[in-house]
Amino acid sequence: MKRILSLLVSFILILSVCSVAVVPVSADESAMLHTEGNRLVKANGETVRLIGLNIPYTSWSDTNEKQVMDGLKICFDEWGSNAVRYPVTPKLWFGKNAEKYRALADRVIETVAEQGNYVILDNHSFYLPDEDDIKLWKDLATRYKNHPNVIFELFNEPAGCTWQQYYEGGKLTYQGLNDWGEEADITINSCGMPAVFNAVRSTGAKNVCILPGINWSFDLSFCTEKDFRNFAQSVAEERAPGDTAAFVEEYVEKYFMKETTGNGIMYSTHPYPTKPADWDQYLQNTALEYPVLVGECGPTEKTNGFVRVLTDTDKSYLETLTAYVDQYEMNITPWAWGAWPYLNQEPSNKLSAYGAFMKKYFEKSLAVKAVTLYDKADYSGKSVTLEAGTYDSDFFAKNGFNLQDVASVSAKADAYQYTVTLHEKKDQSGKSYTVIPDSPNLDESVSGFRPQSVTIERAVPQNILPGHATVIADGSVEEQLPENVIDGKNGTFWKNISETPTELVICLDDVYALNRISIAHAAEASMMSVFNASNYTVSVSTDGKNFTRVIDVTDNNLGLCEYKFEQILASYIKIKLTKGSVIDDTNYYLAEVMAYGTKYTGPRTGMNITVNQYKAEDTAEKTESAKPPVILWVLGALVIVFAITSVVFAILWKKKK
Asked: Is 166 left (phi over 0), alpha (psi -120 to 50) or beta?
């Protein structure tokens, strides 16, 4: 009897747990996401980029299950998405039909998880969070705690608030037109966004959390720790001018949302065309440090009903938006299936012009990932396209590709640098060879082995020259020394004056694989653009003797020039300037040279390599201080005048005779 009672109690306990935390047996734990830098990553190391639709019916109603389930089918079966942004609200979650409303959320999550896709659970609230949002997230986080297919979006659109209110909370009063053109008169006693984040983590839920910006979730200006500290400093100068340093540290500790116990933080932005056009100013810093979701977007002109025709303005906006999303590899869920601006022609499933544009974009984005491997040189033959991550030969075999035959690799054009490391063994042990795409020749004769696994990494490009190079030039003027071009500061520059072409050679401390060089000219050092170098070439070498030209420029007038090329090995970078500034082509200026790549890890047998052994002829003498003194110029001029006078005198004397 005791044993039966014990089993019964255990069964009841299990049922009680299941009624609180909804993690179905069918969920695949390996799908759980965490953040690494600005990437979302599965447990196996594979990068995931979320691309899907907003299906917003449950943001305003608790009785539209059919529309939601039909929308899910379209999202995944017809659009090929891997995510859906699904809204809930405190009012409906705790409303009179709460049981039915919650059951639908469970069904959506179960359906999406069975397909291995993701639900972005969106608290579709506005202005600023309050205690209702705390209550909602304590319940949601407990219910979907550590569900591998659920991501928590803590708040939809903060609006009418300052950054100080966003972090600290307090009383917010909003009066006027809201973002969808309706009159609003709102007063909120806000708890602040950090309190909502802390409420989620207090439940033990590790799910990735999405945090919004301000200005209707557009502006992400103060989300990185560096930017937040600058914001805290401005608060300190007002509140504690006598001890700003201590105030800043206390403020950062109290309000900055830094991950400590969970799987990571990402941010959401809603870049509608009504928002400021300089997106980099508001988004770039955060996008380079955290995963960012474009949670809502879409044309907002209402002259075309269901956007049956894209205006030139609409098309320009969408093309700019998608290019920007691709540049920073953002995640995206355009708004919306079933709400303005409609992706469909509600109530039908026929696509609007906006929907047709976005569906085509989805197809393109889902088809081409970060890096593509080919089994023949020069990007030909069979191919497989992958996001960053680690993959072994078994994975490739399942996808119809023999990793041992890899012969070339390319990367998509975006803001990042990709490195591809081939490993001799499945467990990434043994020999390895790292390249940076684009690499047209990658077979066994180059790497020295036949790979069994590969690691693809994505990072913000880093200039390798500071700390890893020295500079030699055939001349310089006054304090404008050659080493200024590798000091990491555009405000300094190198200058040389020469009647003939002038050279500058950067000597690296090892052999590097390069695929990009940027040159900052005089305009980047706060000088007029007419001082930018006009004509120049850039060549690289591994031995300091035999150089290969990778850049050839004529008639340049730009301040910052960026050049990308196929991977090439280099221990030396030689810049030969053949025409200086527009106003005086014997004056040569360079503000900064930046080289991007990775240290060469391949075999060196048979390669002619020298490091820091470049010898420039007469370098020391070709400086402005080595020019002939003025007195010599005067004496030379007198000699010429005397010679001319003598010739004239001789001619006249001959005629006289």
From this structure: alpha
Question: What is the amino acid identity at position 258?
Answer: K
CA atoms within 13 A on the CB side of 497: 10
Average pLDDT, the chain: 89
Find, among 102, 111, 68, 63, the residue nearest to 86 by Cα: 68
The parts of the chain modelled with pLDDT lower than 70 are 1-26, 179-180, 302-307, 615-657
CB atoms within 10 A of CB 558: 14
Sort strands 209-212 and 150-153 into parallel, antiparallel or unpaired.
parallel
Helix ranges, 584-628 (H): none
* Neighbour count for residue 217 (Cβ, 10 Å): 28
565: number of Cβ within 10 Å: 14
Within its chain, how far is the Cα of 100 from the centroid?
40
Q: Which of 594, 544, 592 is nearest to 572 (CA)?
A: 544
Residue 152 to residue 652: CA distance in whole angstroms: 101
Long-range CB pairs of 176-179 (<8 Å, 24+ gap) are 178/126, 179/216, 179/274
User: Residue 323 belongs to what H/E stretch?
Assistant: helix 312-327
Strand (E) or helix (H) holding 26? none
Q: How far apart are CA 24 and CA 450, in angstroms?
A: 42
Q: Is 642 helix (H, G, I), strand (E, B) or coil?
A: helix
Under 8 Å CB-to-CB from 510, ≥6 apart: which residues? 468, 571, 599, 600, 611
What is the three-class DSSP state of 511? strand
> Percentages helix, strand, coil for the chain, rounded to the nearest 5?
30, 30, 40
What b/e string do you get for 603-618 counting C-beta neighbours within 10 Å, with b at 16 or more? eeeeeeeeeeebeeee
**Nearest Cα to Cα of residue 373 among 390, 389, 396, 339:** 396
pLDDT of residue 103: 98
Q: Could you report how far apart the first and last alpha carbons of the chain are, in Å?
A: 150
pLDDT attached to residue 26: 53
Q: Please give the full DSSP string across 107-131, using - where no structure is assigned.
A: HHHHHHHHTT-EEEEEE--EES--H
Six-digit token pair at 592?
A: 């900064």
Distance of CA 621 to the CA centre of its chain: 46
Phi-psi group of 160: left, alpha or beta (phi > 0 → left; psi -120 to 50 → alpha; rest → beta): left
Beta strand residue intervals within 178-254, DSSP E: 183-190, 209-212
Give the per-residue pLDDT at 21.
62
* Spatial CA neighbour of 622 closest among 482, 444, 453: 482
Q: What is the pLDDT of residue 603?
A: 83
Please name the residues in contact with 616: beta carbons below 8 A apart, sequence gap of 6 or more. 472, 473, 474, 503, 505
In terms of Cα–Cα distance, which of 416, 462, 454 is closest to 433?
454
The pairing of beta strand 371-376 with beta strand 331-332: unpaired
One-letter amino acid at 391 equals: Y
The tokens describing 68, both together, are: 């939601």
Those residues whose C-beta lies under 8 Å from the C-beta of residue 464, and which sit 6 or more positions away, are 508, 512, 595, 596, 597, 598
Looking up tokens 């690296």, which residue turns up? 508
Task: Find all residues with CB under 8 Å of 646, minimum gap 6, and list them.
Answer: none
Give the pLDDT score at 612.
73
Give the SS3 label for residue 637. Answer: helix
What percentage of the chain exceeds 70 in pLDDT? Answer: 88
CA-CA distance, 76 to 451, in Å (whole number)?
A: 35
> Computed from CA positions of residues 645, 650, 651, 652, in that sequence, does the dihedral angle turn out positive or negative?
positive
